[in-house]
Amino acid sequence: MLVEVALPVPVPRPFTYAVPPELEARARRGVRVRVPFGRRRLVGVVLGPAGKDSAHGTIREIESVCDGPSVDEKTLELVRWIADYYQAPIGESVRLALPPLALKAPGAGVEQGKGRAGRRGEEVRVRLAPGPSSPRTPLDKRARRLRAILDALTAEESADGWMRLTSLRGLTGASAEHIRRLSDGGWIEVAVGSAATGGGEPEGGRGGGPEGRRGAPPPSPGPKLPKEGPVLSPAQSIVAGRIADAIDKGEARTFVLRGVTGSGKTEVYFTAARRALDRGRSVVFLVPEIALTPVFARRVRERFGEQVALLHSRIPARERGDAWERVRSGRAPLVVGPRSALFAPAGRIGLVVVDEEHDTSYKQEETPRYHARDIALVRAKLERAVAVLGSATPSVETWRAAETERFSRLELPDRIGGRPLPAVEIVDMREELRRRRTPVLFSQALVDALAQARASGEQAIILLNRRGYAAFAQCRACGEPVGCPRCSVSLVYHRSDETLRCHYCDHRRPRPETCPTCGSPHVVFVGEGTERIERHLERLFPGARVARLDRDTARGPDAHERILLEFEEGGFDFLIGTQMVAKGHDYPGVTVVGVLEADAILGFPDFRAAERTFQLLTQVAGRAGRGDKPGRVLVQAYRCGHYALVAAARHDHQGFYDREILYRRTLGYPPFTFLAALTVLGKDLAAVTKRARHVAGILSAHGEGRIQVLGPALAPLARLRGVFRVQLLVKARARTRLGDALRRTLAALAEERGGSRDLVVDVDPYQLL
After folding, report:
1. Based on the domain organization, do 298 and 440 belong to the same domain?
2. Which of 128, 633, 682, 743 gets the most CB atoms within 10 Å of its CB?
3. What DSSP character marks residue 545?
């Protein structure tokens, strides 16, 4: 008996192994097996039977079948589709469908009969602290989450008032930061002990267990039922009804939900999820970024309690494995996470939701370079499930599919409660320069709006999509910027630690006192980043509480959530950040949004530059005016008449789409063609260029006139991490033609010396830099 095994190596094909008779009953499709590979031992996944003609060289035997996670039939079909469509090694694709470490080199605990020993779980319980026992720090009136936690503990019906932390999280979305703040403030007591023995001591020494005893309290009743959602508006009811009908019928159907910011799309998702769960089906919620996952998961847990599993790559491997098992066993039929959550082992999926489907974070920029939105549709089709793609600014490709009726179109054109969309004003910075005769960071209109918001006790968000203090350091004598020695970019100045940094390879050097090129002392810092805006705002408004949210401030595991939590509860007046601040947040206290350098993305060498500009502006504008007070948005730009800015100011997605689709049709870009970007890599530019010409010739030959090959040309980022990059862009009118040409080209290169290890293939690219 011969089988094909996918191994975690960068080789396109699977490998053929013989199955010893004693393992034939267990070596079925999808299971993990331990095999010899050269001098090593690897763990791979059985793909199915193999013919003798597929073997290369001597056929070796499988050594053992591994206990633990395996890949089910539908997920195996999905990852094989990914490998084929995205021209990725099958072993790299199969890795997506397994928890962390599942394909690591075998050791103790992976072979048959050597299961991992379970840990003694420690249980955390919480209760209200006795009123007179300690002074309590006053809560901000906007600390809604903290008050919800206290309300839940007040309503706890156990004799001693103790509640399991897992139950409290299910009811309120309580995070570790919430618990810490309430405990430090004297509002609650926390006890930690063994779930098996009931032993342990209260955390932090505040009070004790029941009747003054130290130790964990006795078990409390099981978790309360999750809370019901609000009554849907008529528009929400219509949309939710159409999705529910498709779920009831078990249809493999795709809906595109275009809803303005604040229109209640999330409540529609929750209503659809409840319908699927009531029908015995599981649900997958995708959010675009890991940073957003805990925030969104809180809201899901408020509604669905302990049925929720959170999956993303920043969760420690052991915890992620536990969550994986909860999903596989059916104890957590609702999965929340970014791209990787799509491969959770959920059975009988009934609904897949892709929130903010337009977001470029859904495109993976490492092998396999898949787009999670598109894979969500494939998985929904395999499961006969409903897929919902939601956004206030659907991507051009998605909205084209809705217009041509490949997908069903749903709309929520108004905000909940009839609240108006914020007024958007485009501020012409050319006029500001003429009037004030000097470059300024903030227009007078924005300064006035921020001052008014602060005086009224309201909040504001400032968006600048560039971190650091200054964009680059430049010599006034020779004119040269200080560049990265490994990448074709300038170094960004970070004043917090007085360094220049590369935002691609993380090369760092101290702030230069003289020019590295000519030795002149006249080095100046040009442009601005979020760090500079933060300091400028603190000077403009002394005493203002200012927070910054970018990759520099959100490095810790809970940093992103902690900053947003404190802002949500009124701890900051102003929040400054990169595009992180534009996504998926609902802060009723925000009445003003300012956007700096709003037209900067338009200068990027990317056919999607206008679309990204429109989406970012529309999304961040939607953060304003979501409470009782109207919102105001000020967009500072130089190219004020560009259609992306004008449409964003009008909240006019259809108007933008009509203009953009004409441009795409005229120049032959998606959705009217299909693209692949091929990048040849190497240390020697001449050799890389020669190799790229060779690849272009093979592509053209196998394309047989049905594809267009553009290039080779230096990539916009010609050198990255010390490696030169030369690009080819391949266009085709049909997916099948593009896939066939790529497949035949890679097969031809595989026969050559060196194969295609110096080549990166990106099908449906979203990043052309």
Report:
1. no
2. 633
3. -
With cut-offs at 50, 70 and 90, classify the pLDDT of residue 107.
Answer: very low
Q: 394-398, 743-747, 749-753: which range is least confident on average?
A: 749-753
Flag whether 117 is in a domain: no
Instruction: Write out the H or E segment, with its range, that includes residue 647.
Output: helix 643-649
Rounded CA separation 12/303 (Å): 44
CB atoms within 10 A of CB 265: 24
The dihedral built from the CA positions of residue 208, 209, 210 and 211, taken in this order, carries a sign that is negative
529 and 471 Cβ atoms separated by less than 8 Å: yes
Token pair listed for 4: 């094909």
* Of 112, 114, 115, 116, nearest in space to 26 by CA: 112
Before 712, cis peptide (omega within 30)? yes
C-alpha 513/C-alpha 305 separation (Å) is 57
Range of the domain at 87: 2-97
- With 0.90 as the threshold, say if the pTM is over it: no
Q: Does residue 462 share a domain with residue 410? A: no
Check residue 119 and give its pLDDT: 36
Q: What are phi and psi of 490, to 5 degrees?
A: -85, 155
CATH of the domain at 630: 3.40.50.300
Q: Please state the domain count of the chain.
A: 6
Question: For helices 396-403 and 653-667, what crossing angle results, to 10°?
Answer: 100
Residue 700 covered by a domain? yes
Strand partners, 549: 577
The tokens of 710 are what?
């553009």
Tokens 């947040």, residue located: 585
How far from 588 is each of 441, 558, 575, CA to CA, in Å? 27, 23, 14
Calpha distance 127→156 (Å, rounded): 9
Identify whether the C-beta of residue 13 lies closer than 8 Å to the C-beta of residue 55. Answer: no
Q: Which residues pair with 473 in a beta bridge?
A: 525
Residue 257 parent element (H or E): strand 253-259
pLDDT in tens, 510-547: 999 999 999 999 999 999 999 999 999 999 999 999 99
Q: Are residues 259 and 346 in the same domain?
A: yes
Distance between CA atoms of residues 762 and 708, nearest Å: 16
669 inside domain: no
Domain assignment present for 460: yes
Amino acid at 247: I
* Helices (H) then strands (E): counts for the chain: 20, 32
Lowest mean pLDDT across 249-253, 284-288, 297-301, 517-521: 297-301
For 384-529, where are the alpha helices, taking DSSP H only? 396-403, 429-436, 444-455
Other beta carbons less than 10 A from residue 522's beta carbon: 12
122 vs 323: CA distance, rounded Å: 17
Show the tokens assigned to 257: 């939900």
State whether residue 634 is helix, strand or coil: strand
Other CB atoms within 10 Å distance of the CB of residue 314: 11
What are 259's strand-pairing partners?
412
| Widest Cα–Cα separation across the chain | 86
What confidence score (pLDDT) does residue 117 get? 35
- 3-class DSSP assignment, residue 334: strand
- Average pLDDT in the chain: 86
CA dist 77 and 47 (Å) reads: 9
